[in-house]
Amino acid sequence: MTSAGSGLTVWQTCALSLLVFTGASQFALVGALAAGGNPLTAAAGAFFLGVRNAFYGLRLSQLLALPRAVRPFAAQWVIDETSAVSLAQRDRRGARIGFAVTGLSLYVLWNLTTLLGALGAEAIGDTNAWGLDAAGPAVFLALLAPMLKTVTERAVAGLAVVLGLGLLPVLPAGVPVLVAALAAPLALWAEGRRKGRTAGRPEEGER
Fold first, then answer.
1. Residue 202 gets which letter from DSSP?
2. Same structural domain for residues 122 and 157?
3. Which of 9, 33, 73, 180 could link 164 by a cystine bridge, Cβ 3.0 to 4.6 Å?
4. What is the torsional sign of CA 54, 57, 62, 68?
5. What is the distance between the alpha carbons of residues 118 and 106, in angstroms, rounded to a whole number?
6. Residue 21: which domain range?
7. 76/49 Cα distance (integer angstroms)
8. Does the residue 204 lie in any domain?
9. Nearest to 157 by CA among 171, 173, 170, 141
10. Share of residues in the chain with pLDDT > 90 (%)
């Protein structure tokens, strides 16, 4: 519904879901387009959000050890859920089964619900009038909040919000989310400096 409400047709929405099988990137792309952002900027934001899947792929390639001919097709299913299920298994056979079952079921259900949502959005007309444009961000906030357990993680999230919202009025749509990605290296740099200063302090017994 979010994609259809951003001006994409049913078929464009379905094609996006089929080809870009990662929810965060999809929501980032359609959100930037809905705000009137440049398509290239919107695509860049979606790309950077999907980069994490490449790191998942490096770990899963060693764990699954799939035949070379199968790897390009399996890469489409490298997402948070398939990685978590595969890594939780005790052996390679279990990891392969977990990856295949999770990937297939999620891919089919994701694309089926995308089609139903796009058709529903087309039927009800202006989705913004119903407030459905806020559904995507609300879902991600609900998923993200319980995962912020450490001080560093909360600092990254807080700084990203400040950068994103603060730059929203002055930068083109889609660009603030790219700048907000700087929150992670900035927070990690600050954390490293803090630990470095702590490590350099003499212990009480050494004074």
1. P
2. no
3. 180
4. negative
5. 18
6. 2-132
7. 15
8. no
9. 141
10. 23
Q: What is the DSSP letter of 203?
A: P
Check: pTM over 0.85? Answer yes or no.
no
Residues contacting residue 140 through CB under 8 Å, at least 6 positions apart: 24, 27
Q: Are residues 21 and 87 in the same domain?
A: yes
pLDDT, tens digit, 9 for 90 and up, residues 65-101: 999 999 999 999 999 889 999 999 999 999 999 999 9
pLDDT in tens, 128-147: 555 555 665 666 677 677 77
20 shares its domain with 117: yes
Residues 50 and 82 in one domain: yes
Decide if 100 contacts 117 (C-beta within 8 A): no
Q: Are residues 154 and 99 in the same domain?
A: no
pLDDT interval class at 156 (50, 70, 90): confident
